């Protein structure tokens, strides 16, 4: 049994090395919208905790999960109402795997839910029209979870942003190498 476990672990490690990072994530952040609104994202930038840019192809990239980071987006709230009861849910996927180069969801058992919400990482309310939205992620409280993740491999994070009181939903997908 132990030999089988060692073989599987070694096989996953070899496969992760063979799988090249998708869409240039070895050098820069990739993102896309995964919903139709009402919050529409136009661009997305990574900032460090001091609000300094994470320049592409710089030593600041990839994301260091041991340090707070900010996801800042130019958005448009297409609804004619304010959103002030925002919360997030994050789904995490790892690139690579034993059976080929694919995204594999990592079960988080709710650990990644409500990491940021109004008053805790999101500046609220979100008013109608164009504006800047910043979400600050400080993962130090879940370092026990971060430590078990493979270091330096591409991850896909799906950020689901919900207004709990108004039953609305928006979503962005980010691909990045993450240091754990």
From TrEMBL:
Q: Which UniProt keywords apply?
A: Signal
The secretion signal range is 1-15
Under which name does UniProt file this protein? ML domain-containing protein
> Which species is the source of this protein?
Thelazia callipaeda (Oriental eyeworm)
């Amino acid at each position: 049994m132990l030999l089988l476990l060692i073989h599987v672990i070694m096989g996953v490690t070899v496969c992760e090395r063979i799988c090249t990072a998708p869409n240039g994530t070895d050098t820069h952040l990739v993102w896309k919208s995964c919903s139709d609104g009402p919050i529409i994202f136009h661009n997305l930038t990574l900032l460090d905790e001091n609000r300094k840019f994470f320049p592409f192809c710089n030593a600041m990239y990839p994301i260091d999960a041991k340090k707070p980071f900010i996801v800042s987006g130019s958005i448009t709230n297409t609804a004619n109402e304010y959103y002030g009861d925002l919360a997030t849910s994050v789904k995490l996927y790892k690139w690579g795997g034993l059976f080929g180069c694919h995204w594999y969801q990592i079960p988080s058992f709710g650990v990644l839910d409500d990491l940021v919400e109004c008053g805790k990482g999101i500046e609220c309310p979100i008013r109608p029209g164009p504006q800047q939205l910043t979400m600050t992620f400080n993962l130090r409280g879940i370092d026990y979870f971060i430590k078990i993740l493979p270091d330096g491999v591409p991850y896909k994070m799906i950020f689901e942003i919900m207004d709990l009181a108004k039953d609305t939903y928006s979503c962005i997908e980010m691909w990045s190498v993450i240091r754990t």
